Amino acid sequence: xxxxxxxxxxxxxxxxxxxxxxxxxxxxxxxxxxxxxxxxxxxxxxxxxxxxxxxxxxxxxxxxxxxxxxxxxxxxxxxxxxxxxxxxxxxxxxxxxxxxxxxxxxxxxxxxxxxxxxxxxxxxxxxxxxxxxxxxxxxxxxxxxxxxxxxxxxxxxxxxxxxxxxxxxxxxxxxxxxxxxxxxxxxxxxxxxxxxxxxxxxxxxxxxxxxxxxxxxxxxxxxxxxxxxxxxxxxxxxxxxxxxxxxxxxxxxxxxxxxxxxxxxxxxxxxxxxxxxxxxxxxxxxxxxxxxxxxxxxxxxxxxxxxxxxxxxxxxxxxxxxxxxxxxxxxxxxxxxxxxxxxxxxxxxxxxxxxxxxxxxxxxxxxxxxxxxxxxxxxxxxxxxxxxxxxxxxxxxxxxxxxxxxxxxxxxxxxxxxxxxxxxxxxxxxxxxxxxxxxxxxxxxxxxxxxxxxxxxxxxxxxxxxxxxxxxxxxxxxxxxxxxxxxxxxxxxxxxxxxxxxxxxxxxxxxxxxxxxxxxxxxxxxxxxxxxxxxxxxxxxxxxxxxxxxxxxxxxxxxxxxxxxxxxxxxxxxxxxxxxxxxxxxxxxxxxxxxxxxxxxxxxxxxxxxxxxxxxxxxxxxxxxxxxxxxxxxxxxx
Length: 638
Fold this sequence. Notes:
alpha/beta; 5-stranded parallel β-sheet; 21 helices; globular
């Protein structure tokens, strides 16, 4: 694709790749003859030392032509709402802009809570716009979860080329799946390069925030090491996400255990596992990542599996990026763009794996052809990894469809279970004693160190800061009845001038882009809201209750079409689904549809106010049709 875009060589254009049906998505393949021709022509072109800066950036029509060539199929309008942005040819693909001259009043400030991927993305948006902001970060460095989590072998489980912002081009990742330290360094690099770092207030923990209905400003209670301070801001953006509060290990007798218990999010370099009897409780992404490393030097490792997971391989997981690829990214025009696009291509149509096919089920299938094919491949993979041991296979194969829970990437976990010093236990834990863990069958196993890989309190969005909106009502009050909900995952009625990043139902089920790009999209939406308020002289904006309700009704209806809420899915112990049986993590639409919703705010969804005007509508302008607008500010008691 890069070669054709740069040269427009008709021989390359004449190549017709093949689309082959696959378990997650179709795969685009080339014949050996075509691949050889592409390589030969690429060598000839690269020997001319091409200069990418001298080549034109394609317009949308050209990008669509290239996308159809890359995917070997025609794409309809519904496929091209977001797709053409993914290769990121423009400098700042999702950057908000002023429509007129900049108009920021003296003293205006936006408070951002958290300096991880989300908070830094928001900071970049505002820095580009020239809008003053402060990021409050309770730790001593940027990174968020990539600063907190330092357990053995922690790394991303999506390809590095998709786990990056679209505006930062050609970052030199060292591995296909970047390690924790590399990801944190990337966030630090971006924060410094784009003028965000110096606006971060480190060691500052925002414990509470209160909205003033008269001034239309927020007051944040900020704790330092030895200080407590109240600071005001016009807008607050909660960017602490959903993986900020570790889930406690709730096992009877846990307080009696005399050894060490460490949650993976509280791991430090002082944790010593070499030569010890180690118990790992949990087999989600974290537990699967660290087992292999711990088992290499521990005396024994007992893995307590709470729920079997579909754990899958990833090509190049744990593999360094070779110098040849690094060189191509640097020297071949547009290679970075197409490498990024292809890296996420398999997830663009992921929704097809999640939709039950009634005809397929009626004919004896479980979900649909792709999902069942994926299941068959994963069962074969499990068997091969454990050497065909039926005792392990019986414990490891889940009784629910793949993709129902968060996909887990194998880091030599299955093979580690076959080591002589590793035991898999799927019998539920009954209690802990001073030196052992006792399972429901009465068997006791000694432990010196317990590693709690039990995840996070994902139902507690943007916790632990407590936000008090109109009337002093908290988000917890609003969410008590049905769980966390928001409009587009960003706004809640009764909380003017407050936005969330990675709020309820934010994570797209399919899109072709990783979360960092979505942080750009969402922060762009928020930045447009702020710009709109400033340009139109508004001091506050609040999502209308009818818009909020309508959106969430449509979301929950759409969610019913996917396997997450199906009777044969893993509804229990699944953080995708809340205690009320509602989808809480994912946006159930296609990436294209969800992007269309998030690309720009619809003013009709909001009510606006100016200082001194509580309801946002001048009394002399209120008509019968405006009464519903005034009613949207009323907050019911909890």
